[in-house]
Every structure is written in C-alpha cells, then in structure tokens.
Design brief:
By secondary structure, this protein is mainly alpha-helical. It has 16 helices and no strands.
Length: 300
C-alpha cells in the first residue's frame, strides 16, 4: 500500500493535458488511497480504544507494534502514515504517560518536525501530541518544558498562516490554539505571560468548530478572568467587550455546550452576572456586540 503513494506522487505531477495521462489509473490509485486511509484509521481507532480501556497495561502489547509505527514516521513515508502514527503516539502519551518517556526518542523529533507539515491532518496530530505532553507532564520543572516552549513558534506559524481559517485547515488551526493554551496553563503558568502574548492569544478566539478543544481554550480564558489578569482584561478593563463577545460566540456556535460543559457554563454565568450587576457597564458592552450576541446575552 505504501507504494501507491509513490505512484500517486508521480501521477499528480503530470499535466492533465499530457497525452499519456490516464485518468482511470489515477482513479484506481485514489480508490487504493481511500482503502489505505480507511484501514489505517480503523487500526488507529482500535489502538485508541485499547489504550483508553487498558492504559498502561496495553503498553506491553503496543511494544510489539512500535517498530511498525516508528517506520511510518520516516520522512519518505506518505502523509497518511505520518498522521496515523502520530495519533497512536498521542494515545500513548495521553493514556499511558508513565510509559511514554521510554518511547520519546521515537516520537519527539518527528512531532516537532510535522508541526510544519503541508498536510493539515499531520499538523493536527502533531499539535494534539504537544498539548497532551503539556497536560501529562506539567510544571515549570517538566522534563518536556523545553520541547513544549520550543514548539510554540511552529504552532503560531500554523495559526497565522493565510489560509488557516479555511475549512480544510480550521480543525488543525484550532488544535494548535488549544496546544498553546495547554502549554500556557500547564507549563508556563498564566502569571508568567506578558501582555503582548495574551493579547495575541485572545486575537485567535473564538474557537469556531472544535467542540473537544473549545472547553480547554475557554476554560483558560475563564482562569484569566477569574484571576482578574490585567494583561487579559486590559487597561481599565478595555478588553471586557471582546471577552464577552468571544464567550457568547462560543455558546452560539456550540463550542461551549450547556450540558456537556456544565462546569464551564456555570463559571461563565457567574462572570456575566457580575458584569450585569453594573448596569452602565453592561449596557456599554452590549452596544459593542452584534445583534445575535445581544439577544443571547439578554436571555441569559
């Protein structure tokens, strides 16, 4: 199956106007690629579920598969293999963190490199892994502190890329925002973030699509708000309208979900109530928001 990617690369470089170009051949390759993707996805799902159920106890089985997934991370292998191999190592980090350091020589360097891959699925899998490392190995003395902080420029580059908010890239971009958020929260600490860093981070919000990563990002925003972080709130609370708008947008687009994210919703409601108690301030904020947001907030 790996050979089909090599053929695909050759076929793709040919002009459609080439008389030797064979659409049937390409269609056949596309079908084979789809089959490869399906199989890799299914195997990855199985390993994900086994890690989820058995955690560290699954590592002895995974150990027998390691060489296979390490080989899939090699630069010459196709993007699909890079993506699914990274997903498997992500699961190792997330569900068996005590065993993950044993394999770090296999996944750390590829994870860093593939943050800059041309394929959004590969970038997303790499970004998710960085965030998982930040969560599972937290603190200023984390053995992976340098790795996490060094990854930030690559994550920022993905977020700031011209097409980062296009449909095909959006999920990857939001995973990168979440990964940086996890590094801020678990490795660096919000008290160590300067004004420019937090203003830049706020400019990336709201999360538009990713329901799984939304609570992480909005939860950190609430950490900042509840701590009355002046870099986030702005001089004379100048950023309050934007913070309210971001939270309202999250509720509207359902990246903040009332039932699934009940604790987060409760924190947001307490925050909104505290602002509403100042009628003049609340009215001034509402005037700066779109009508859809005003309607939602007046109903809350």
């Amino acid at each position: 199956s790996a050979s089909t990617f090599t053929i695909k690369a050759v076929v793709s470089t040919q002009s459609t106007g080439d008389e030797d170009y064979d659409e049937e051949v390409e269609e056949g390759i596309e079908e084979e690629l789809d089959q490869d993707d399906y199989l890799l996805a299914k195997i990855s799902d199985i390993i994900h579920n086994l890690f989820g159920v058995y955690g560290e106890d699954f590592v002895q089985v995974f150990d027998k598969l390691t060489d296979y997934y390490v080989a899939m991370l090699a630069p010459e292998r196709p993007s699909l293999e890079h993506q699914w191999a990274l997903c498997v190592f992500d699961d190792l980090i997330e569900y068996a963190p005590n065993s993950a350091p044993k394999y770090q020589q296999h996944f750390l360097q590829p994870m860093m490199v593939y943050l800059s891959d041309t394929n959004p699925g590969v970038r997303q899998a790499a970004a998710y892994g960085v965030g998982a490392i930040a969560i599972k190995f937290p603190g200023a003395d984390s053995p992976y502190k340098d790795f996490c902080t060094t990854s930030i420029p690559s994550l920022v580059n993905v977020i700031n890329a011209p097409a980062s908010r296009e449909v095909e890239n959006l999920s990857c971009t939001e995973n990168c925002i979440s990964a940086i958020t996890k590094i801020f929260k678990h490795i660096i600490g919000m008290d160590n973030l300067d004004e420019m860093t937090l203003v830049t981070w706020l400019s990336w919000l709201p999360i538009q699509e990713d329901e799984e990563e939304g609570p992480t990002v909005y939860g950190f925003l609430m950490d900042l708000v509840e701590a009355n972080n002046q870099h986030a709130m702005g001089k004379n609370n100048a950023n309050l309208p934007n913070i309210v708008k971001v939270l309202a947008e999250g509720i509207i687009n359902k990246t903040i979900r009332a039932e699934e994210d009940a604790e987060l919703m409760s924190r947001i409601q307490v925050f909104m109530s505290s602002i509403q108690s100042n009628e003049h301030l609340w009215s001034a904020i509402l005037l700066q928001l779109p009508e859809t947001h005003q309607v939602l907030l007046r109903q809350s």
